[in-house]
């Protein structure tokens, strides 16, 4: 018995609009060849020419990320969907980007995915990716940059809100790991604009929107001071994730992958909305991951 492959060519006769069933692992999806082959660099172009049998395309991959990939092929902005992915989903997405040759998605990936891709000899900078670091131009004299700009530690200035540091670019999502919480974990984590940020002063109640690592409360320039938000036990090694969703106008936080929910609504910030931190105690140390 011979297998007859269906070939779909870009001949302008409309045949590509025919619906096909895509079976990824054990899950079915529906689309058209036009959608799958919109970018000539994607692997789907190769698959559409060699692997469609009886109007079905079988791909032996885990389907966990394919809904997002298909939305990307359909022209939707999937950057916010990527921001909300779990670590497991991000791991699969990193591998799928290589397999499907979806390199235009690289610029939306968080740091841990970029590190994986670099280990696979992918030049992530070529595709617009950027590793967020601390900005030496918006950096308190009471702090020190460590680990090539990924890590910061307050080393002088005593116990006072006199140590502000910013990330070096506007971003919608970032993660930090607490290396040392100091005596009382007095650290503000959030977003702010560079043009109003005070590197040697107090920002949490006047410049930006923050999550207080000490007790999980909220502080912001809108007058929310010690407002109840999320409860947890601070400890060294904790990972804090901050997300700004410009479409929804919200800021939210996660602690060790536990979603604390929306902290702030009705936020309309420009593109240079940066990771922002106020540090109270000496020896507090944390890093971007």
Radius of gyration: 23 Å
Strand order of the largest sheet: 5-8-17-10-11-12-13
- Label the overall shape: elongated
Ranges where pLDDT stays below 50 over 5 or more residues in a row are: 1-5, 8-15
How many beta strands in the DSSP annotation?
18
Instruction: Report the total helices.
Output: 6
Report the end-to-end length measured between terminal Cα atoms: 54 Å
Provide the β-strand percentage band. 25-35%
Query: Largest sheet, if any?
Result: 7 strands, antiparallel
Portion in helices:
10-25%
Average of the residue pLDDT scores: 91
Order of helical and strand elements: EEHHEEHHHHEEEEEEEEEEEEEE
Helix/strand/pairing category: alpha+beta
Supply the key terms.
289 residues, seven-stranded antiparallel sheet, single chain, disordered N terminus, elongated, 17% helix, 6 helices, alpha+beta
Write a compact overview of the structure shown.
The chain has 289 residues and is of the alpha+beta class.
Structural overview:
This protein is of the alpha+beta class. Helix content is 17%, strand content 32%. The protein has a seven-stranded antiparallel beta sheet, with no helix packed on it. It has a seven-stranded antiparallel beta sheet with strand order 6-7-18-9-14-15-16, with no helix packed on it. A four-stranded mixed beta sheet has the order 2-1-4-3. The N and C termini lie far apart (54 Å).
């Amino acid at each position: 018995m011979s297998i007859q492959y269906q070939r779909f060519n870009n001949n302008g006769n409309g045949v590509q609009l025919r619906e096909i069933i895509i079976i990824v692992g054990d899950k079915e999806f529906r689309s058209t060849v036009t959608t799958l082959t919109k970018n000539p660099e994607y692997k789907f172009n190769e698959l559409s020419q060699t692997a469609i049998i009886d109007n079905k395309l079988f791909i032996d991959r885990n389907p966990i990320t394919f809904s997002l990939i298909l939305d990307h092929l359909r022209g939707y902005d999937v950057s916010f969907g990527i921001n909300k992915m779990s670590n497991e989903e991000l791991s699969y997405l990193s591998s799928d980007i290589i397999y499907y040759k979806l390199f235009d998605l690289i610029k939306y990936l968080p740091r841990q995915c970029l590190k994986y891709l670099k280990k696979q000899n992918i030049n992530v900078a070529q595709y617009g990716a950027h590793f967020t670091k601390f900005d030496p131009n918006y950096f308190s004299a009471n702090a020190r940059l460590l680990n090539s700009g990924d890590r910061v530690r307050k080393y002088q200035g005593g116990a006072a809100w006199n140590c502000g540091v910013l990330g070096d670019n506007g971003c919608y999502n970032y993660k930090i790991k607490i290396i040392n919480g100091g005596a009382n974990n007095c650290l503000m984590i959030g977003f702010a604009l560079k043009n109003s940020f005070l590197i040697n002063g107090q920002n949490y109640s006047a410049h930006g929107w923050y999550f207080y690592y000490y007790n999980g409360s909220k502080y912001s320039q809108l007058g929310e001071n010690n407002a109840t938000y999320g409860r947890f036990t601070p400890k060294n090694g904790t990972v804090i994730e901050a997300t700004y969703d410009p479409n929804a106008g919200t800021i939210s936080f996660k602690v060790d992958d536990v979603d604390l929910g929306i902290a702030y609504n009705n936020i309309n910030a420009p593109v240079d909305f940066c990771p922002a931190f106020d540090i109270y105690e000496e020896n507090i140390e944390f890093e971007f991951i």
